[in-house]
């Protein structure tokens, strides 16, 4: 062997040194929890927009053959563990029709998170409102539901908000279910967001009229889900919309009804971004 070439023992010692450095940094990051607690008021320590920005930044700077998806998994597990260290954290998960929701929650929030299975969407919402769960995992809105779970999000006395969409980092061609997370904390802005608006009118409104009003309010509709009685729409738009956004007032004026922002999500990563 060429004396200038490192032997296997030398390489392993270097790997051990790198592992020690990574471990030291993880412990240092965890040690900042007390400062994080002091800077945050109340129990709103779960911040999906912040987590999304961390992952996006790491993906953008990543180089080399280490898989991007594996990088995301590492950071997701670490961030989820640190979130749980800041206060009680549990998930109420709707699993009646799709057992994959359980795996979806476990994949996003880590292997040790507490998950409670619920057979109805309403019981998930009740668990979050009663503070027996931090967040609730629910299926995407569907047409034709007589009593959709999203219809009560805009309650003035006990509001809930859509906080995230899962999976945030999809795994290639896998057919994982998609779901929304709901909680007690309003949506925060990230660099790429979608928001939901609950639209309520005295009389039924056609999709064509609603789409025209959205366009007139400079809002780009992504999806419209209707409830016939009482007349309601859950509108997903391709932008962040705060409660005081002037576009909300404009849309309400054009429709002659009430428009309430009910949260949203940081846009998930595209499969192409993650690679194989």
How many helices? 9
Task: Please trace the helix and strand order, writing H or E for each element.
Answer: HHHHEHEHEEEEHEEHEH
* Fraction of residues in helix: 25-40%
The spatial strand order of the largest sheet comes to: 2-1-3-5-4
Structural class: alpha+beta
Biggest sheet features:
5 strands, mixed
**Rg to the nearest angstrom?**
22 Å
Give the mean pLDDT.
91
Count the E strands. Answer: 9
Overall body shape: elongated
* End-to-end CA span: 36 Å
Low-confidence stretches: none
Strand content is 15-25%
What tags apply to this protein structure?
276 residues; 9 strands; alpha+beta; five-stranded mixed beta sheet; 9 helices; four-stranded antiparallel beta sheet; 20% strand; 38% helix
Describe the structure.
This protein is an alpha+beta fold. It is built from nine helices and nine strands. It has a five-stranded mixed sheet with strand order 2-1-3-5-4, sandwiched between helices. A four-stranded antiparallel sheet has the order 7-8-6-9. Strand 7 (221-227) and strand 8 (232-237) form a beta hairpin. Helix 3 packs antiparallel against helix 4 (68-85) and helix 7 (207-216) runs antiparallel to helix 8 (246-255). The protein is elongated and about 85 Å long. The relative contact order is 0.13.
